[in-house]
């Protein structure tokens, strides 16, 4: 995958750079649903990384719902948003329940979410 590169001078760890790059390519449609990713060893060799680094990125991508591993058949770009949307909805529900148990009203809970989004995404959230 020629579009992938890891910057040794970046403050981000290599696995996170790789995870973010594959996620961006998948979300942007440059890697279509069903596209088979290179094997861990092949991509590690192409990028000059340790196999464990690529494996960690693939595990994070799978956890995020960006890719799915089909056993010995390989790792593929997953259907956009299905797993990620389900996980985000579950996390949002868990947060709402927890906020209610803590005695927060709707406005306070929404303010907490807005602040967390600003912290993660920046001021545009």
What structural keywords apply?
125 residues; mainly alpha; Arc Repressor Mutant, subunit A; 2 domains; two-stranded antiparallel sheet; 5 helices; 2 strands; 57% helix
Helix content: 55-70%
**What is the terminal-to-terminal distance?**
32 Å
Q: Mind telling me the CATH class of the largest domain?
A: Mainly Alpha
How many helices in DSSP terms?
5
What is the approximate shape? elongated
Taking pLDDT < 50 over at least 5 consecutive residues as the criterion, the unreliable ranges are: none
The strand count comes to 2
Any idea of the CATH topology of the largest domain? Answer: Arc Repressor Mutant, subunit A
How many structural domains can be distinguished in the coordinates? Answer: 2
Just name the CATH architecture of the largest domain. Answer: Orthogonal Bundle
| Beta-strand fraction estimate | under 5%
Report the sheet with the most strands, covering strand number, pairing sense and barrel closure: 2 strands, antiparallel
Structure description:
The chain has a two-stranded antiparallel sheet. The chain is mostly helical and 125 residues long. The model has no long low-confidence stretch (mean pLDDT 89). The protein folds into 2 domains: 64 residues, Winged helix-like DNA-binding domain superfamily/Winged helix DNA-binding domain (Arc Repressor Mutant, subunit A, Orthogonal Bundle), CATH 1.10.10.10; 40 residues, no CATH class. The two termini are 32 Å apart. The protein has 5 helices and 2 strands; from the N terminus they run αααββαα.
């Amino acid at each position: 995958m020629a579009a992938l590169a890891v910057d040794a001078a970046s403050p981000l760890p290599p696995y996170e750079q790789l995870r973010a790059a594959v996620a961006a390519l998948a979300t942007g449609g440059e890697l279509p649903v069903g596209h088979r990713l290179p094997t861990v060893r092949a991509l590690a060799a192409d990028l000059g990384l340790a196999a464990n680094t690529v494996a960690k990125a693939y595990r994070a991508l799978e956890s995020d719902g960006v890719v799915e591993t089909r056993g010995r058949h390989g790792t593929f770009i997953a259907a956009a948003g299905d797993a990620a949307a389900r996980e985000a909805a579950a996390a949002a529900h868990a947060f709402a329940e927890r906020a209610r148990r803590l005695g927060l009203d709707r406005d306070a809970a929404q303010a907490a979410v807005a602040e967390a989004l600003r912290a993660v995404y920046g001021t545009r959230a």
